[in-house]
Each structure stands twice: as structure tokens, then as C-alpha cells.
Known about the structure:
CATH architecture of the largest domain: Orthogonal Bundle
Domain HTH tetR-type: 12-72
CATH class of the largest domain: Mainly Alpha
Keywords: DNA-binding, Transcription, Transcription regulation
Oligomer: single chain
Number of helices: 11
Structural class: mainly alpha
Protein name: TetR family transcriptional regulator
Number of domains: 2
Distance between the termini: 36 Å
CATH topology of the largest domain: Tetracycline Repressor, domain 2
CATH superfamily of the largest domain: Tetracycline Repressor, domain 2
Order of helices and strands: HHHHHHHHHHH
Pfam families: TetR_C_14 (PF17754), TetR_N (PF00440)
DNA-binding region: 35-54
Largest sheet: none
Helix content: 55-70%
Radius of gyration: 18 Å
Amino acid sequence: MTAPGRRERKKAATREALSAAARRLFLERGFDGVTVAEIAEAADTAVSTLFVHFPGGKEALILGDGEERAQALADAVRHRADGVSILDALQDFLATRGPFAAKASTEAQRVADLVVRTAALRAYARTLWTAAETDLTEVIAEQTGRAAGDLSLRLLARYVLEIPDLAGVQPDPRAALKLAFEHLRRGWPGV
């Protein structure tokens, strides 16, 4: 694998500067109290550059575009240890994310709290999670030897992907995550 070229490094640095500026400003003043123009200014870039890197707008500056999320979900299922069920692997994966992360840094916890408290961010996060439905269904089908068109697997994938939105806002998100997977194991034993 070759090292990224200068252009790719500059793009990555611009994306990181924009994300860092957005995080800082959102945590200081709240999501609704910050404009894209202020974020661009804080990152020393143009608003048009912000939208080139983050076409999803302000929400994407905090939550990304979902590609990493879908790939990470698939990897959690595909690369689980021998003897670990698909549902255990997915629960373990979600336990490291957002409001479920037990060992999150202070900033990561503050960002997770911001997402839970902000309607626009919460809705965007839910959209990102549910957008991974087809990918998750396909990897579960692949790993179980069932057809990717199996409605039961699509239902399972959808239920798993709704957990962050539903359980993440509970007073004890980790306990809610555990409860959600207890119910899923009853409906899909052996998965």
C-alpha cells in the first residue's frame, strides 16, 4: 500500500480541520447555535469547500456519511471470533459506539450527548444507521447461508439498526442495549 499523495493529505487535513472546528463550536454553543459559515471561518476555509467535503451539511460534520458505519457493521459480523454469534458480535460492536461506549473519552461522550439532545442530529444518525440495512442483511445472509432476500433477515437487520435511536436515549443506554439484544435473541435464536 502506498502512502497518500500530497493532494489526498491536504483533503484529509481540510476534512479534519472542518470536523474539529464543528465539534468545538457545537460543544461550546450547541448545534443550532452555529452556522456553516462560522464553521468554515473557524477552519479557515470557504463555505463551498465545507460542502465539497461534507455534502450532508452540518450533521455530517459530526456524524460522517455512513460509509464507515456500514463497513464497520459488516466487519463486526464477518470477522467475529469463532463461537461468537452474529447477535453477540453486533451487540459488542454497538457497545463501542455513541451513548453505549463505556470507555468513551470526555469529548466523545459530550458529542454523543449532543447527538441525543439535538433533534436534527438524532434524525440524521438514525438515517445513517438505517441506510446500512441492505449491507447488514447481506452479510448476515452470507454468514448464515440464507438468501439475502429472506424477509426475516431484513427484519433483524432493521431492528438492530434501530437500537441506537431507541436505546441510546434511555436513562441507562447500556442496559437498554442489553435488553434490546435479549429480545432479538428470542426472535432469532442461533443467529
